[in-house]
Amino acid sequence: MSLRFQRLILILITLVLLGAALLLILFNTKQNIVFFYTPTELLKNNNSLEKKVRIGGYVKQSSFTKKSLNEYEFKIIDNANEILVFYEGILPDLFREGQGTVVEGFLNNKNNIIASKVYAKHDENYMPASIKKELEKNNQWKKNYK
Predict the structure, then answer these.
(1) How far apart are the first and last CA of the chain?
(2) Distance between CA atoms of 17 and 9, rounded to whole angstroms?
(3) What is d(CA 130, CA 128) in angstroms, rounded to the nearest whole number?
(4) Shortest CA distance to 102 belongs to which of 35, 16, 20?
(5) Is 29 within the bounds of a domain?
(6) Which of 26, 42, 78, 100 has its Cα between 20 and 30 A from that of 55?
(7) Mind listing the pLDDT tens digit of every residue in the chain (146 residues)?
(8) What's the CATH code of the domain at 116?
(9) pTM exceeds 0.85 for this model
(10) Structural domain harbouring 45
(11) Which of 110, 78, 76, 81 is closest to 95 using CA atoms?
């Protein structure tokens, strides 16, 4: 075998391995992708019940009910439609009615979702109380940030 032929074989083997790695990455990301919907978009689309989805919107006023110790039920709205959410677990500290939230879970039927994760959204001025106390203790807290 000449040196030129050995280089050609090395290049071809490298390209085949890179192609196989790329196909594995693309196949894996296709299976693990989670789409984000608003309640209106979710009701318009025909999604399968086994599919994991993320729903974003606001927690509807007077819709939050605590069923038991760690079981909750609430509705997410987007000014047009609403989705009923069932969640079992600990809710985030910033979660409350009228606040923005993102829920990840599986569709129970077209209008219900069984949530596995609940995320609370906050604005850019939010600072956790523990960090604020630490800054005040070190005299680094300034109340007029711009």
Answers:
(1) 70
(2) 12
(3) 6
(4) 35
(5) yes
(6) 26
(7) 889 999 999 999 999 999 999 999 988 887 777 778 888 888 888 777 777 888 888 899 999 999 888 899 999 998 888 899 999 999 988 888 888 899 999 888 878 899 999 998 776 667 777 777 877 777 766 655 55
(8) 2.40.50.140
(9) no
(10) 38-120
(11) 76
